[in-house]
């Protein structure tokens, strides 16, 4: 979790500095690239690659269009992925909950196949983050409580991908539509590190980081074999 803490504190501090310099109008997912890249480079002492083809999903993508990629990877030793990072920004334009779930799944695949350290970075103004976390599609019904990510504690949490969460079936079906014959885990394991800054005013900017891991022996499923996720179109 050391790198998770460095990403949280480093990117969060960088945002506070940029805000003090009246540059918050530039804040976006793309704007996070500089601090994330520099922290990864300093921590690993290796080259950081941006928009790197996903080692599991990119080879499966055929036909026109961009291949699935990862925001940042460290290849050490080359060509093995030792660190992977996905990032999202909650601003005037907000990423869909579906896109965040897809980031978590893709990171889990890398953690499992490459043995890499994988992290999901999420930033934005505190009030915007709080509002985003309150969406039903993000938190799930009150009972049973089944959020996509824990936002209040640093306990290890398992994100269920199975169709037991009925309110997410339609979203998950869209995610798996192009990968019907790909093996996916039943669960993604995520653990939050303390957001930075922890004590944050509603109009200040904050960074959350989750460490995404995978079980060595994990249960898998194929969307084509799922009544809920099969794409018959």
- Fraction of residues in helix: 25-40%
Can you summarize the main beta sheet? Answer: 7 strands, mixed
Taking pLDDT < 50 over at least 5 consecutive residues as the criterion, the unreliable ranges are none
> What is the overall number of helices?
6
Q: Globular, elongated, flat, extended or rod-shaped: what is the shape? A: globular
Helix-strand category: alpha+beta
Order of helices and strands: HHEEEHEHHEHEEEE
Count of beta strands: 9
How many independent structural domains?
1
Please tell me the overall pLDDT: 93
Widest sheet, order of strands: 1-2-3-4-8-7-5
Radius of gyration: 17 Å
Detailed description of the structure:
It contains six helices and nine strands, in the order ααβββαβααβαββββ. The protein has helices at about 1-20, 35-45, 95-115, 125-135, 135-140, 170-175, and strands spanning about 50-55, 70-75, 80-90, 115-125, 155-160, 185, 185-190, 205-215, 220. The N and C termini lie far apart (about 40 Å). The strands form two sheets. It has a seven-stranded mixed β-sheet with strand order 1-2-3-4-8-7-5. Helix 1 (about 1-20) packs antiparallel against helix 2 (about 35-45). It has one domain (about 1-140, about 185-215). The model has no long low-confidence stretch (mean pLDDT about 95). By secondary structure, it is α+β, with helices and mostly antiparallel strands. It is globular.
